[in-house]
Design a protein that fits this description.
Layout: E1 9-14, E2 20-25, E3 31-36, H1 37-46, H2 50-101, H3 105-120, H4 123-135, H5 138-169, H6 173-216
Antiparallel strand pairs: 1-2, 2-3
Length: 222
């Protein structure tokens, strides 16, 4: 069997001025070529051997597999978070609907009835009341204005109570139920007291209007 042919090799050497060189020798050790180390090294870096290419391909493949696994893990976590968020949203919607169903409907009906009665009142009657109020003494006019203001405050109080109850209902279903019950009781009490005060003031204003009309128009005012 023939012996393997020796390849030419190169070794690092330095010139008389200290410049780094590559000395290429043949199989017998004779100097074959002298190369600049910087140029030869740059040429080596530009070329890729088969082993380096295979190693690079393996590293790229491993990096891709690792990145794919990371993406899959992040996707699973994101999907789980989305599922939990959707469940929370559904639960909050159910709680809000339950709270809205338990809202103080009786107070709403009372306010709607008052508004409907005001709308259905004849225009002549409203005009007569306005004229009578203008002829009333300043104290009676202030009483009528106070009665109207009390009614408006009662409506605003009911609306604020209902809004506050709906906001609290979004926390949890149990807290929403208790808050709605308490809000309903407080709203009914507040509305009842304010409506009672408004009725009293309105009655006083009506008495003042009647007295003013009697003083302005003598005789029977039936």
């Amino acid at each position: 069997m023939a012996a393997a042919k020796k390849k030419s090799r190169r070794k690092v050497a330095y010139s008389s001025k200290g410049k780094k060189l590559y000395v290429v020798r043949d199989a017998k050790g004779r100097i074959k070529d002298v190369q600049s180390y910087a140029r030869a090294h740059a040429a080596d870096l530009r070329r890729t051997s088969k082993s380096e290419a295979a190693a690079g391909a393996r590293s790229v493949k491993k990096a891709k597999a690792k990145a794919k696994a990371k993406v899959k893990a992040k996707t699973r976590v994101a999907r789980a978070k989305v599922k939990v968020a959707r469940t929370k949203v559904v639960r909050r919607k159910v709680a809000v609907r339950r709270a809205a169903k338990k809202a103080p409907t009786r107070i709403k009906r009372q306010v709607a009835a008052v508004r409907a009665a005001v709308r259905k009142a004849p225009a002549k009657t409203r005009a007569a009341v306005r004229r009578a109020v203008r002829r009333m003494p300043p104290r009676a006019q202030r009483a009528v204005a106070s009665a109207e203001k009390s009614v408006v405050q009662a409506e605003k109080s009911v609306a604020k109570t209902v809004a506050r109850m709906k906001r609290k209902a979004t926390t949890t279903a149990k807290q929403a139920e208790t808050a709605v019950a308490k809000a309903q009781d407080s709203a009914e009490k507040t509305a009842t007291s304010l409506i009672g005060q408004a009725k009293d003031l309105f009655q006083k204003a009506s008495d003042a209007v009647e007295s003013a009309v009697e003083s302005v128009i003598p005789g029977d005012t039936k």
